[in-house]
Structures are given as C-alpha cells and as structure tokens.
Amino acid sequence: MAIRQPLHLVQIPATREPISLVSVERAMSEIRRGRWVLVTGGSGVATLTMASEGVTDAALTAISEISRAQPVVVVTARRASVLGLTGGGVRRVAIGGRPALTAELVHRLADPLLEGPPPARGELDVTEVAEFGCESAAVTLAKAARLLPAALVAQVRDPTAEDQAAWATRHDLLHVDAGDVFQYHGMAARGLLKVAQARVPLEGAEETQMIAFRPRDGGGEHLALVIGAPSPDRPVLTRLHSECFTGDLLGSLRCDCGDQLRGAIAEIARAGGGLVLYLAQEGRGIGLVNKLHAYELQDRGFDTVDANEQLGFEADERLYLPAAQMLRALGYGAVRLLTNNPGKVDGLVRHGITVTERVPHRFPINPHNEIYLRTKAARGGHLF
C-alpha cells in the first residue's frame, strides 16, 4: 500500500462538532460488534475498516469482494517494532500477507497473547502509512473503542463508489470521516457538560460534593469530588485519579491505585479542602479489558511498560484536556497537584492550568506491586 499525502486537519467548527462526535461514537460501536465501517478521507480516498479482534476468514472474503481490493492489517509502530517489522520512527504500518491475509495471521499480528512464534518477515508485505490517512484513522478508532490497537482495512476500489455516502448506504455501512476520528478526544473533552451534582458524604470527608461531567456524544462520565469549599482565589490542592476498577473497587494489590484514591481524599480533607478529579481512563487510557491483557503479559515476565508496548500501546495513553476543562468549569485555574508523576504536571500545564507545586503522594509497597512501582519510577519517571 503506497504512502499517501497526509490529510490537512482543520479544526471542526463548533456547530458541526455534535454531528462529528456522534458519527465517531457510532463507528466505535459498530467495530466493537465485529462489523466494518467506511472511513473517508481526502482526495476521494475511502477504506473499509474493522477491528482486528472481529476478523474471520468469511469477513476477509466479504471485505475483498465489496471493496474490490486485498485487505491489509494496520498496527501501531510499537506493535510493529515488537514484531521485528520496523526499527521505529514511524507511526503506523500496513501489513499484507504473502499471498494474502488469513484470519489466523491477522490475529497473530495483533495479539501478543496468542501462542506460537510471530509471523516470519518473509510471510509479510510491510508498508508505512500516512500519519493522518484513513489507515491510521482505523487504528485510532480501534483504540478509542478500547480494543486492541490494530485494524483490518481495504481501500475501496469499486468503480460504483464515486458517491461514497450513497455507496455506504447501499451496503448498509456506517461511514465516518478520518479527520473526525483524529479529533474525537479533543471534541469530547471540549464539550464536557455538568450533568449532575449531589452531596456525597465520604468517610473522613463528609463535606463532599460529587459533580458528573458528560461529553455531548453521551460517552463515559468523568467525576469531580469537591471536598470542603476550596477557594478559586488560590491554588487548590488537587488529585487527578484515573479510574481503576481492580484497585479502587476490588482492592487489588497489583497496583497502588486504591491507596492513592483513599489517601488523596484523606489528605485533601486534612488540608481543609480541595478536589479529586476521577477520570474515565482505565488502565492509563487503554481500558479494562486491555489492562487485563497487560496483566497476563506481566505474569509472563514483561514489566508494565513492556506489556503495554507488546499490545501496541504507548506506556501511557492518558489525556489531560478533560481534567483541564473540568477545572475551568469549576472555576479553578491554578492547582497544587497531588502526584508522583511529573507527566501529569506537564499535561495540565500544556492545557492552560497553572501548577504551583507538585505535592508528593507516597504509600507503602507490597510484594504484589513492588515491581510495578519500581518500573513506574525507573521507566515512567515517577518520583517516590
């Protein structure tokens, strides 16, 4: 597959953002169901796309027949490097089979948990793809849907597809613009709305208000815990906490998340007030199912960073624009940030929030999370 000229991304007008958000949300739902969607780009380029996890041999045949082209699987540069297909320096690569892909080959390329050696380089035809092309948008869509970051794509070469929207309708396909996919997270964060608020007394912090923020597309909510009555006239003690089902709710010993959440609430209450922003970014942004995949890889000997990269993710996929938008909506522009992670400081500053101080946030190590915490320090730059 030849490299095409990257799309020129232009910020979507505010009046169109609700339509764009809904189209991406619907496309994510489709690929999570194992269906394919049409991704459209510049210069009349369009690709049929489905998530790698849903690929079957029957789907491969159908996509080839409908598109009139041979499909390829697109993976991240991280996954391609793990497979020994690239030395780095690229964002995404398209991989075709020799002579053609099979469902088994697609799954072996995308999923590091499958038994057996990775495909040999000679079995594959590897090509770099454009950073903002339809092929890259397919992987971005899979990631946004909390699936493995790999997608099957086939360029539409059907001569009857000149009118792409009509062609998609004839084939009962949803279609989504590649530019909308790339801008999805930013649009969702900019459109966060306060949708509910209530007093929720907490153990050790009885004067707590919980405020829910929802994006305009109806996606997952982020929560703000306002403890006490912190003044917007001075930097507010704040904890950004990414949701962790296993640690926060079940008390998992594999991480320190539950300790950090409860410790932050107690520390902020002792300080007289502040904020906990509870962000819907499970597993450092990869989702609960992918986090469980990463745990299985850790049990096979990979550390937390390498496990994410085996799956094709970056070590940390979290976004900080939602937190910055929530702070502004609550009336706060400056914080004292309760964290061991300098990346959170940088993330807030990058989105216009002043961080006057990083306040350390340490808890005892246990035998189950010792390697995890040491990896966060050694490879993630956390300060303990």
- CATH architecture name of the largest domain: Alpha-Beta Complex
Strand order of the largest sheet: 5-4-3-6-2-1-7
Label the overall shape: globular
Query: What is the number of helices?
Result: 16
| pLDDT averaged residue by residue | 90
User: What is the count of distinct domains?
Assistant: 2
CATH homologous superfamily (4th level) name of the largest domain: DHBP synthase
N→C terminal distance: 47 Å
- So what's the CATH class of the largest domain? Alpha Beta
Beta content: 15-25%
Helical fraction equals 25-40%
Largest sheet: 7 strands, mixed
Question: What name is given to the CATH topology of the largest domain?
Answer: DHBP synthase
**Structural class designation:** alpha/beta
Kindly provide the radius of gyration, computed on alpha-carbon positions and rounded to a whole number of angstroms.
Answer: 22 Å
Write up what this structure looks like.
With 384 residues, this protein is of the alpha/beta class. The protein has 2 domains: 17-186, DHBP synthase (Alpha-Beta Complex), CATH 3.90.870; 192-281 and 318-380, Rossmann fold, CATH 3.40.50. It has helices spanning 17-32, 57-67, 77-82, 103-110, 134-144, 164-170, 178-182, 184-190, 245-249, 257-270, 282-285, 288-299, 304-311, 321-330, 342-350, 370-380; strands spanning 37-40, 46-51, 72-76, 92-97, 124-128, 150-155, 175-177, 193-199, 208-214, 222-228, 236-242, 273-279, 334-338, 354-359. The termini are far apart.
Features:
DHBP synthase, Rossmann fold, 7-stranded mixed beta sheet
